[in-house]
Amino acid sequence: MSDESIAARIERLVKEEHALRTREEKDEAEALEADTERLRAIEIELDVCWDLLRQRRALRNAGANPDQAAARDPSTVERYWQ
């Protein structure tokens, strides 16, 4: 996966996140629950994508092959301290 494809995935997720947050105000209880679950999934996927992009950049800066980077498990990424 290239930096460009990761960045494009991030952009699509951010757009979806914004659309869901805008829709939140109008949703009924059932739809709001589904949107809340999807928002949480988007947040986790964004964290994984950003982590992978940072790994690729770090490998490149160290003179290594950025294709050696691999997406980490969401439970690992979610335990990082911000």
How much strand content do the residues show? Answer: under 5%
Helix content: over 70%
Structural class: mainly alpha
Number of domains: 1
Distance between the termini: 25 Å
| Overall 3D shape | elongated
Radius of gyration: 15 Å
- What does the largest sheet look like? none
Average pLDDT reading: 90
The residue ranges in which pLDDT falls below 50 over 5 or more consecutive positions are none
H/E element string? Answer: HHH
Please give the number of β-strands: 0
Structure description:
Helix 1 (about 5-25) packs antiparallel against helix 2 (about 30-60). The chain has one domain (about 5-80). It is built from three helices and no strands. With about 80 residues, it is mostly helical.
List the helices and strands and how they pair.
Blueprint: H1 3-24, H2 29-61, H3 74-78
Any key phrases for this structure?
single chain; 82 residues; mainly alpha
Summarize, please.
The chain is mainly α. About 75% of the residues lie in helices and about 0% in strands.
